[in-house]
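Supplementary notes for students who missed Thursday's class. We covered one full example, reproduced here. Read the sequence, then the structure, then the short commentary at the end.
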Amino acid sequence: MGLKADEAVIIALGGNIAGDFGSSEALLEAALARFAEAGLPLVARSSWWRSAAWPDPSRQEYRNGVVLVEARLAPERVIRTLFNLEAAFGRVRGARNAARTLDLDLIAHGRTVCDDPNLTLPHPRAHERLFVMGPLAEIAPEWRHPVLGRTAAELAAAATVGLDATPLGAPAPKSG
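Structure (token representation):
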């Protein structure tokens, strides 16, 4: 990869409603196909991961992944672009943690640190989530959190949320 992970924009993708696409994976692939034309050219992408819905695991399980894109847009423009892509794929914002077709989270924008009412970078909870740090560690294990200083691999090993997350094709974890 020519672009260093610490210079990239990191975006987490997720969803658990397939909409018109037949599967969440197909919807996520279709969304990724629109990234370049939206000014977010892909540099690297993880495999798709599965995880139970949270906080209610009886709901349809999620598919998640992470991509690195070139940082051509300012963070505020990236957020607007992500919201527009979500809307184009049927995302309706409503209740917190509700089922959704497409969830796009800006995890990091290079080494930018920002704590603003409209934008917090790096993402304030991503480091706790295995369904984010696992895929990120898959493609950029040495990426360092701009505030915590820990690598993606270290954060994945220390995650406290979504511990059932596994790459698709891997055996599902046994429930305790």
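Commentary. The helical segments are 24-33, 75-88, 130-139, 152-158. The mean pLDDT is 91. If anything here is unclear, bring it to office hours.
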